[in-house]
Amino acid sequence: MQLSKAAELCYEITNSYLQIHQESQIISSTQEAIRLTRKYLLSEIFVRWSPLNGEISFSYNGGKDCQVLLLLYLSCLWEYFFIKAQNSQFDFEFQSFPMQRLPTVFIDQEETFPTLENFVLETSERYCLSLYESQRQSETAINMADAFREFIKIYPETAAIVIGIRHTDPYGETLQPIQRTDSNWPDFMRLQPLLHWDLTNIWSFLLYSNEPICGLYGEGFTSVGGVNNSLPNPYLKKDLSDIPLLFEWEIAHAFGKNAAGEHDPIVNTSPISVVDKERFSEYQDDYYPGWYLIDDTIERAGRIKN
Ligand code: FMN
């Protein structure tokens, strides 16, 4: 897929979600969340930094939050290009999308699940990302600020980086949608237009999108870090209690399924790698999928503190 096609697809997914008329508090709050993120991107960010000339990079690690933000970012990128092209003196059909790949940075801090690594590579192709991957040190976890220092050295044109962090993430409570990095970090602007999203918003939009999502979420993970500090979320253990699925409608009516008249309950998860299958063999099928967990306060219960 070309970047212009990927961006147009994301635009269609987002528009389709915004047009859902369902009596669902989750869907209407997610529609509100999308509108606010779009406002930040189109009216506050893209007017200060051009998304088409390398000033903005996207921080991507294959996780659900940054994938949601990527879909919205690409959707707005398409809209930004479309409006510019419409206002130009030349007919729209003679205008070509001025970017082939989206500048993206993946700080791979510690030993990562191969399933996630594969997902990042596959989605880099799907969404036409030009992926910079930091050098990983095998024993000690790499310092994130240093990894970004290295990145900025190689891409000095970077003025701002988009981050899919939310207020409920650790240290996320007091963050602002647009802010400079702290003094002990390399100097650039942090663009954080997803802060107001909660878990239900994330799953509702992502499951509806019908885009491939990282297979680890299908195995009960709700927050993915390194292989040595991430497990399925203990609150999703099947023998604890029955947990209701709140996103049945989104899954059954997901984008693109309706056209074929299908209403299937399958979620588009990426394949689990052979190594991870082996790793999970003891407890595979013991957990509900990650999208059964909707309480933000226990989202990281599967993360082991080092
Ligand atoms: N943390 C800071 O304390 N100060 C910063 O200035 C800062 N800048 C960041 C810039 C980027 C592009 C990214 C991706 C992260 C930055 N962080 C900064 C760290 C994040 O706020 C957050 O702690 C980190 O992304 C958490 O990662 P995790 O969700 O994988 O645990």
TrEMBL record:
One of its GO terms (molecular function) is FMN adenylyltransferase activity. This is FAD synthase. Residues 56-231 form the Phosphoadenosine phosphosulphate reductase domain. GO terms for biological process: FAD biosynthetic process. Its EC number is 2.7.7.2. It comes from the Eukaryota. It comes from Saccharomyces pastorianus (Lager yeast). Pathway: Cofactor biosynthesis; FAD biosynthesis; FAD from FMN: step 1/1. Transmembrane segments: none annotated. Keywords: ATP-binding, FAD, Flavoprotein, FMN, Nucleotide-binding, Nucleotidyltransferase, Transferase. The keyword Cell membrane does not apply. It catalyses: FMN + ATP + H(+) = FAD + diphosphate. It is an enzyme of class 2 (transferase). InterPro entries: PAPS_reduct_dom, Rossmann-like_a/b/a_fold.
